[in-house]
Write a structure and sequence with these properties.
Elements (H helix, E strand, L loop, with lengths): L6 H54 L16 E3 L4 E5 L5 E7 L2 E6 L6 E2 L6 E10 L10 E10 L3 E8 L8
Antiparallel strand pairs: 1-2, 2-3, 3-4, 4-5, 6-7, 7-8
Length: 171
């Protein structure tokens, strides 16, 4: 008597193996899709983190404009609208952060062009600066609350508050 497989047994075995390969390929495809999405989100968060850290550092190191060469005399910050802030940095240069065409921008008064802080892939829907203690007459240490909302590629809201490093003393 010869031992072997019938055509039916062979067809069932090939069918089961094919089904297993299809499931494995689908799982691999979904895994690589999720990894790609995860890497894209990490890149977005890295860019936003860089922009917020850069703005926070510059705002923290701002100094009072004693003679009014950048903003009003004896002020620390000037908020223009709600999505732009101007100040004198620690080197005495006039800086500005603002929102233009859904992108975070940074410029110096003595430079000719603005530099973007985020890539065009990130759509910033809102940028707000809330300032307390910016004038010489109040008794508050200057601080800026920065609120940033992005719309694409993922919807998120970020907020940080920065206190000026230099003490706000009367001159």
């Amino acid at each position: 008597m010869k031992k072997g497989f019938t055509l039916l047994e062979l067809t069932v075995a090939v069918g089961i193996m094919s089904l297993l390969f299809i499931v494995a390929a689908d799982l691999f495809s979904q895994g690589s899709f999720l990894q790609r999405k995860s890497l894209e989100r990490a890149e977005i968060l890295n860019q936003i983190s860089y922009a917020l850290e850069f703005m926070s550092r510059e705002l923290r190191l701002a100094q009072k404009d004693l003679n009014g060469s950048c903003i009003s005399a004896k002020n620390n910050y000037l908020v223009e609208g709600t999505n732009s802030i101007k100040f004198k940095d620690f080197n005495g240069k006039c800086q500005r952060f603002y929102l233009l065409n859904n992108q975070l921008m940074h410029d110096y008064q003595d430079h000719y062009s603005a530099l973007p802080l985020t890539s065009p892939k990130i759509i910033v829907s809102s940028l707000k600066f809330l300032v307390e203690g910016q004038t010489q007459d109040d008794t508050l240490q200057p601080r800026v609350t920065l609120i940033l909302e992005i719309e694409k590629p993922l919807k998120a809201k970020f907020q940080t508050t920065v206190s000026q490093r230099e003490l706000d003393v009367q001159y």
